[in-house]
Amino acid sequence: MTIADPSLTRAIRDRFAHVDSCPFSGPRIFFENAGGALTLNSVVETSAKFAAIPDNQGRGNAASHALVAVIKQAKTDMALFFNAPNGQFFVGESGTELTFRLIRTAVMGAAAGGKVIGSSVEHPASRSAALHWADAAGKDYINVPHDDATGQVTAQAYAAAMTPDVRVATILHTSPVTGIGNDVPAIVSAIRAVAPDAFVIVDGIQHASHGRIDIASYDIDGYVVSPYKVFSRHGYGVAWASDRLSALPIETLKDGPVGNWEMGTRDTGAYATFSDVVNYFDWLGGETSDATDPRARIEAAGAAIHAHEKSLTDAMLNGVDNLPGLADLPGVTILGGRDNPDREGLVSFALDHVPTSDIVDQLNAQGIRTHIRRADHYSGNILNPLGLEAAVRVSLCHYNTHEEVRNLLAAMKDIAG
């Protein structure tokens, strides 16, 4: 069964809160998933359940033991979801905070001298951290330019900039501005061919909701996601660290457990809600395949999500029925290009004759939630080279439908006209 099957579409949408209506503004189509995906109903229930429990972990009572068991199970679920049989998972304040911590640990703990490398396509979560800690450690920073036309950075671009003394490398898995994914395994291979001992940290925050994460195949040292962008909630981030990254000097309590990244008492509910996310992917993989192995079902879910989202973005770009696609509108710029096979559930565009803010406002007035990305510290690295002051970001997930795309295109036909 495909996600577009009406019965499965209904079953999927029934599992999410506020799928077609905002509690403040009423009925709406949600195309702002890159800013924060919809939340699973199970996550809402789990959050309330654990928020009411007063006990802490590490105490000699039944409630405390149960909390520890929940966290242990969540870490097992995370290892399954990310396909990470080694290393360790932990939660923190946010994806950005965890990205800073991993990069800080790698840069400050690596051998003296040398360089840090990253690309111009990266989100500030990794780029700012790499620049800051490279400067603090007295290491040069190498900027790998991304391709403005495709909105991505290639392994070849990394290879051309690599030197043997690179100590730390950062990679963006998918851009939250262009929606275009980067080939992480190929980039890592290019890095390790020249600097085999470099620590490699990946920002997977935008990529996670589209599935298909496979840490075991990446040969990396750190991977970070923001759960509110992958059907959980705000208030925490999830990071994976390799054993060799955890062996570096990390900030931890004196005389405490060796290699412990967590600082202070963690929210058990955060861990538990990520188990809800993993359980959802497992369920979806069971609906879209005959797989029985949990990891195989998660992989099947990722494949089904990718196929459905591609059909939605193809329709959005090329049109449906008698409605022109976004790529056919007069004076349009499509970030990443019209035919980009690495697009993941997102289309950003601008019109040369209608201000971007007006487009977002008019869509919002018609109950279609999108977002404006301005050429600021978040998106200027992508928009400025294109000569754009701003772009409209239409970001979707697998619970979105072709009918919602049709409504968007009908509205855009009038706005562009």
Automatic annotation (TrEMBL):
<keyword id="KW-0808">Transferase</keyword>
<dbReference type="InterPro" id="IPR000192">
    <property type="entry name" value="Aminotrans_V_dom"/>
</dbReference>
<dbReference type="InterPro" id="IPR015424">
    <property type="entry name" value="PyrdxlP-dep_Trfase"/>
</dbReference>
<protein>
    <submittedName>
        <fullName>Aminotransferase class V-fold PLP-dependent enzyme</fullName>
    </submittedName>
</protein>
<feature type="domain" description="Aminotransferase class V">
    <location>
        <begin position="29"/>
        <end position="408"/>
    </location>
</feature>
<dbReference type="InterPro" id="IPR015421">
    <property type="entry name" value="PyrdxlP-dep_Trfase_major"/>
</dbReference>
<keyword id="KW-0032">Aminotransferase</keyword>
<dbReference type="InterPro" id="IPR015422">
    <property type="entry name" value="PyrdxlP-dep_Trfase_small"/>
</dbReference>
<dbReference type="GO" id="GO:0008483">
    <property type="term" value="F:transaminase activity"/>
</dbReference>
<keyword id="KW-0663">Pyridoxal phosphate</keyword>
<dbReference type="Pfam" id="PF00266">
    <property type="entry name" value="Aminotran_5"/>
</dbReference>
